[in-house]
Amino acid sequence: MKIKDLLSKDGVSLNQTAADQGAAIDLMVALHDKVGNLNNKADFKAAIEAREAKGSTAVGMGIAVPHAKTAAVKKAGLVAITVPSGVDYKSLDNQPSKLLFMIAAPDGAADTHLEVLSKLMTMLMDQTFTKSLIEAKTPEEFIDLIDKQEDARDKKNNADASVSPAPSKTGLKLLGVTACPTGIAHTYMAAEALEQCAKDQGHSIKVETDGSGGAKNVLTDSEIAAADVIIIAADKNVEMSRFNGKKVIKASTADAIHHSKDLIDRAVSGDVPVYQHSGTISKSSSSMDNESAGRKAYKHLMNGVSHMLPFVIGGGILIAIAFLLDDYSIDPSNFGSNTPVAAWFKSIGGTAFGFMLPILAGFIAQSIADRPGLAVGFVGGALAASGATFANPGGDIPSAFLGALVAGFASGYIVLCIRKLTDGLPAALEGIKPVLIYPLCGILVIGLVMCAINPIVGALNTWISNVLTGMSSGSIVVLGILLGAMMATDMGGPLNKAAYVFGTAALANQNETGYMIMAAVMVGGMVPPIAIALATIFFKNKFTEGERKSGPVNFIMGLCFITEGAIPFAAADPLHVIPSLMVGSGVAGALSMAFKCTLMAPHGGIFVFPVVGNVAMYLVSLLIGSVIGAIMLGILKKNVNE
């Protein structure tokens, strides 16, 4: 397959003008729809905008490559527009974009097309080539330029592959790994930039690309052993244990694309820390990561939470459906399982929900100690759920969510300690460490730890539960204000996640107070995007044309409980937007608590409203909070012309 197989002349529109990013997106989405690449135009546009909300796909040098992989795409395709006068696409280098490609990739399809698209991304690093595309007069000329460049590149690559290069006498042996969350554009452009810069300076380099179609050009053990320096240009986690003991530079894909020379110069200087994959905080590892102990702990926690959430969400919604379908009057004490259909849903949901604590602890431990920590953490989390004690190993006092947190961190550091203690064992025993020594000793030690702490943490949980249950209507409203405001403070960041994790932990208690807390958390997270959408409609002079066009999309994101929809607006004007949204979300959380609204599902937005207790007042809480947030935006934000 070649690039022209994905790009037709009807999908190329030259010499366009676009007022802003939103207008450019509309032009390219329309082209995709015109050439028949889409199942659903609106859903595809929403997927493109959701990707842009995470960070602009304008990579600089006048190039933007918006992309989405979604079920709204019928077949893989590529469209392109040129905007010679430039469009502000929120580029990494703050320069207008003049050449824009939009990639549409279908879910679940073969990834052959991604290899073709990766080739295009590397070709775009040639600024002479991109200039010729911008100056093309017809779509046919545009496609012909791409085809000729692709043929020349393939011919050169084949020639290079058939000749073994002479070893450099002075240059370094460099390796690289590039990776971005979607693995379509930035991954390959970063790799090309590193390869070209290293070649220009006389160094050899091989770059592994961790793209959407899987890792390509994978580094071998012998190559890693022989490398002088390894450059990791990644915006997501990559497998790091293989680089233990090597000099490693960590950077983002943006650094590699725009500052590859700086990275290569740093490698040449020798001022590069040695990576130690032990999990301990040493001088070299801490200087390389430039992260505090608190930041590392937060990342370990989020690794556990992100793996736990699918079980909580799937299981929690099924349990909520069970309550929706059941008949309370049959047996109030058995509500949720009175009818066979309800009992079936609750059983399946309960099974999924039961994995919550082992998964949380297991993946916290894995983040700390890599794979050997996984089994130990799983067992620790299961013991927290069962409540094992020395007096009753079968289960007595569950320490629940807090116990699982302790188990996850304890398990990870227990495995690191065992690894440290066994460093001096003969090399012949190296192979049995991960399959025998680490799990056997780790599970034994975490068993002792959990039997000791379960009674303590269990008692703390009981106290917290009693305090929350005994809260007066006034104090529970204060809690609602706090949780709602936290959901709007950083919209997906640490405070938002802390409030959400607190809500899911309260949900696990399966009592009215816990359900009220979860309801306040969700309504607090729904308000920010909806308030933004309302403000863009009623206070047009406070927003740019592009913001006004993208604003209504936030209605959908807010109703789906996707707080992150408000991030681009908050990032553009944090001092005025964030306080406004915090007030709106705080009011919504307070009203939800005051009206004693309950929610048994940990996610779902408007789709789980049928299982909300006192749903009418819950809608009132959401509406009032959103309107207040919008009014605050109208008051605090300055007019665009100011």
Description:
This protein has 642 residues and is of the alpha/beta class. Helices cover 58% and strands 9% of the residues. It has helices at residues 21-34, 41-53, 112-123, 127-134, 139-162, 186-200, 221-226, 253-269, 283-289, 293-325, 340-354, 356-369, 372-386, 400-421, 433-469, 473-489, 494-507, 512-538, 545-550, 553-559, 567-572, 574-594, 615-636; strands spanning 12-13, 58-60, 63-64, 67-70, 77-87, 97-106, 173-179, 204-211, 214-216, 229-234, 248-251. Helix 6 packs parallel to helix 8 (253-269) and helix 12 (356-369) packs parallel to helix 14 (400-421). The longest helix has 37 residues, at 433-469. It is globular and about 75 Å long. 48% of the residues are buried.
Regarding quaternary structure, what we see is: single chain
The DSSP helix count reads 23
- Tell me the total number of β-strands: 11
Could you tell me how far the N terminus lies from the C terminus, measured between alpha carbons in angstroms? 51 Å
Q: Biggest β-sheet, characterized? A: 6 strands, mixed
Count the domains.
Answer: 4
Which structural category fits the helices and strands?
A: alpha/beta
**Residue ranges: pLDDT <50 for 5 or more in a row?**
162-169, 279-289
